[in-house]
Amino acid sequence: MKGIIAKEPGGADQLIYTEMPEPKLEAGDLLIEVHATAVNRTDILNREGKLGYVNNPIIGVEVAGVVVETNGYQDFEKGDRVMGLVNGGAYAEKVVMPADRAMKIPDALSFEEAAAIPEVFLTAFQTLYWIGNLKKQEKVLIHAGASGVGTAAIQLAKVMSNAQVIITAGSEEKLDYCRKLGADTVINYKEQDFAEEVLQATNQKGVDVILDFVGASYWEQNYKSIALDGRWVLIGVLGGSTVHQVRLMDLMAKRIQLTGTLLTPRSDEYKADLSKDFISKAIHYFEQGKIQPVVDITFPITEVAAAHQHMEANKNIGKIILKV
Amino acid sequence: MKGIIAKEPGGADQLIYTEMPEPKLEAGDLLIEVHATAVNRTDILNREGKLGYVNNPIIGVEVAGVVVETNGYQDFEKGDRVMGLVNGGAYAEKVVMPADRAMKIPDALSFEEAAAIPEVFLTAFQTLYWIGNLKKQEKVLIHAGASGVGTAAIQLAKVMSNAQVIITAGSEEKLDYCRKLGADTVINYKEQDFAEEVLQATNQKGVDVILDFVGASYWEQNYKSIALDGRWVLIGVLGGSTVHQVRLMDLMAKRIQLTGTLLTPRSDEYKADLSKDFISKAIHYFEQGKIQPVVDITFPITEVAAAHQHMEANKNIGKIILKV
Fold first, then answer.
1. Residues of A in contact with B237 (CB under 8 A)
2. Locate the Enoyl reductase (ER) domain: which residues (chains A, B) (predicted)?
3. HEC string of chain A?
């Protein structure tokens, strides 16, 4: 079978679609014929050789496809359309997926749409609810609102919690899209001081939850934006990792919970539990059409380099899909 | 009645025991005749005029005493021995306490022992369980092990969770005392690199929970000491508030939950809920003698200045009590 690897750690030009051994099916795995996969920032770090925890030379952490071998697992049959996280190996014709995290694809969705779900919706679900403990009608600030996780989080927070959703993004097109997805307040971070806008939109109280993909460059403004007893979830450092002045007394005064998290390196058990909780609490919104996967653009897998470059240029609204 | 106030914001010499108006009983309050109260660091900050959220000129946030007016509240009778948190006003002959946070004193305990319970045991209980989510047999690092909160946390973590308890303190006498209370590993922070000792005691995995009273000066060592998915609870900045280099990627890599917290400024409802949960889960250990309040020394209330100086000198093991 064929799969995408990086010849050498480096840029998108290092990616090649080449003959690779079929994945080895182990106890508890399904074998999936991949129809679509999607690009994540972790794939770019992996391509660059910057991730220590990835063993699979084939890139990619999520797929939508068809079960071709159930391996004795009773909940699935050959031919079932499934989506979910994999432990690497997604950019390929076939991949193994632990059966206890596989999710059946709602009938209304194509493979390309389904491939836009697992990583970003599970991350948004995990950060908003498992970590951020978002409650009904609370206020949430979602940075990078037009990103994959951003577009997922806007919808989950509105539909599941009727939250007051405030987002930041860097272009009018992105702001408009986020408003259509349900965001109540949209802020162009290139033109506005987002902390001031957040305080204005929240009666000077600030937000209960922040999804922070940005890190260092937003530190002070995020601190200003968060409410007493706020939960600040750190899931990216696109704006730098090192903060040069952190006043711990400020964290105590506002009783802030700051949690750093990554999804990909977590255990199989965690991913299975998260997927199951997502199925039970959120999947019906997709079946009812109340929440939609957001696909920015679909590339054939042979054009993977262009797909990575598209993400690196920060131009996407929602997910970048690879059709296999 | 008489109570302790600071003439002017400043040192312990500003404290005077003087005639003050009786506290005003409002709906939901008990009126308590105070038999004993205890010194907390928040009292020192209050004396120095550094707390913005204290309205009561009379210092002190916890008491043990006798109910003299039930105010129609059914769960208590005149003459009941009670202990609990108050919203200021503790260093006095009488004080009001919201009835929904009052705790009956176990029969075996004196008023002086009971006054050693509320603030430190509720703080230890809150930080270990409500915030730190300590689970059975997990590993916990408790700084300032011989402090009031430290001595409470060692006992709760051992008795309630059979945790592996590692503490730091600054003298052999304090280390010995912590070992007697149940600490498994004791570290003299003046002589040893505590992070190295913690890693050695935990098979290089680190601890699941840190109770951090120290802040900035321990930042790097605490980071080294904490395990993957660790909960780092920040409840004091005795070693400084400002950290000059925080690497957010490190927080993400270890998936750390860092929570700043203070108990005194929290809402009445929070204190009532916390007290009730503590009664239901922990008070029987005091009745059975499995957990003991730790009293370092008792001063008559007229010697309050000496009591404050004793805390400021960091010489105490456990609580400093004022007998009224």
1. 248-249, 252
2. 10-322
3. CEEEEECCCCCHHHEEEEECCCCCCCCCEEEEEEEEEECCHHHHHHHCCCCCCCCCCCCCCEEEEEEEECCCCCCCCCCCEEEEECCCCCCECEEEEEHHHCEECCCCCCHHHHHCCHHHHHHHHHHHHHHCCCCCCCEEEECCCCCHHHHHHHHHHHHHHCCEEEEEECCHHHHHHHHHHCCCEEEECCCCCHHHHHHHHCCCCCEEEEEECCHHHHHHHHHHHEEEEEEEEECCCCCCCEECCEEHHHHHHCCCEEEECCCCCCCHHHHHHHHHHHHHHHHHHHHCCCCCCCEEEEEEHHHHHHHHHHHHCCCCCCEEEEEC
